[in-house]
């Protein structure tokens, strides 16, 4: 059990935010090189559309995360430097696998290029803004991936009836998102070490509110578009997606407490050590190339 941490208003004076014995392992896995069912999520369109919409954003999104973190690594401690290197290697592998997965979705007739184009247009708007804001956005979105990763691994209902290989890919991705969930945040602490705790808390909270609005608005539109390509429109599409997200299995409803915790003064992603979930699933990837953080 971790020793209690001393916390000021925000994490500026927190002595041990990330577990000292954390190992970020790069698992060089490959999935979905052959074929998957069109409706891979239990033959059901709503879960399929939601996850296809998410996956379509990952290649450009994760490249953005990598650059945002790398831009602030100068002067980092040796421990954080090693964690950033492992984070980058994990995210590169995630990008490769989601490119392969997205290709299969396109092979099944889904047009996801519109999603990719909009992500590219949104990222183009970040070029001229302060790099620290890109890191704050990355930190907020990494919290989203960590929340969903925890829920996917903790609640087998999410992928119980999914295509086995697709389920393995999402589990593998979730394991590594949990493992590196503190890297962007610790980089933020390092990069804003001269800020007041109040300023740090205010900026990360405002950015999370902004990110949340865009995240759900855009993912909803993307999912609606993909459902329309499946011939599902109108109230049937809206009600079906709402039920999937809010009721059963209800990923949005279930992650709400973790989302709310982000606004707590002194918050850190490792306030909740959920590495036990990794141990439950990691044995499925015993053939992976296991490489500890350098």
Automatic annotation (TrEMBL):
Compositional bias segments (type: Basic and acidic residues): 7-16
Keywords on record: Hydrolase
Name of the molecule in the record: Metal-dependent hydrolase
One Pfam family in the UniProt entry: Metal_hydrol
Class of the enzyme per the UniProt entry, highest EC level: hydrolase
Region spans: Disordered: 1-20
Database matches in InterPro entries: UCP07580
EC number: 3.-.-.-
């Amino acid at each position: 059990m971790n020793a209690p941490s001393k916390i000021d208003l925000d994490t500026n004076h927190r002595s041990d935010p990330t577990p000292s014995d954390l190992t970020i392992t790069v698992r060089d896995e490959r999935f979905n090189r052959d074929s998957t069912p069109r409706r891979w999520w239990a033959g059901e369109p709503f879960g399929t559309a939601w996850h296809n919409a998410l996956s379509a954003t990952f290649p450009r999104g994760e490249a953005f995360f990598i650059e945002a973190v790398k831009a602030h690594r100068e002067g980092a401690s040796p421990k954080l430097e090693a964690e950033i290197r492992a984070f980058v290697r994990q995210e590169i592998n995630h990008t490769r696998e989601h490119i392969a997965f997205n290709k299969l979705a396109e092979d099944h007739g889904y047009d996801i290029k519109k999603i990719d184009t909009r992500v590219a247009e949104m990222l183009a708007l970040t070029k001229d803004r302060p790099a620290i804001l890109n890191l704050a956005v990355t930190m907020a979105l990494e919290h989203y991936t960590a929340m969903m990763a925890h829920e996917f691994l903790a609640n087998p209902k999410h992928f119980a009836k999914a295509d086995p290989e697709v389920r393995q890919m999402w589990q593998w991705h979730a394991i590594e998102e949990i493992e590196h969930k503190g890297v962007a945040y610790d980089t933020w602490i390092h990069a804003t070490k001269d800020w007041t705790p109040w300023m740090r808390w205010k900026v990360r909270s405002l950015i999370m509110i902004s990110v949340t609005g865009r995240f759900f608005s855009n993912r909803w539109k993307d999912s609606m578009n993909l459902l329309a390509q499946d011939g599902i429109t109108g109230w049937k599409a809206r009600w079906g997606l709402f039920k999937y997200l809010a009721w059963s299995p209800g990923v949005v409803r279930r992650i709400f407490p973790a989302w709310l915790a982000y606004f707590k003064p002194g918050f850190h992603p490792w306030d909740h050590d959920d590495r036990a979930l990794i141990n439950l699933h990691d044995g499925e990837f015993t053939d992976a190339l296991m490489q500890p953080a350098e």
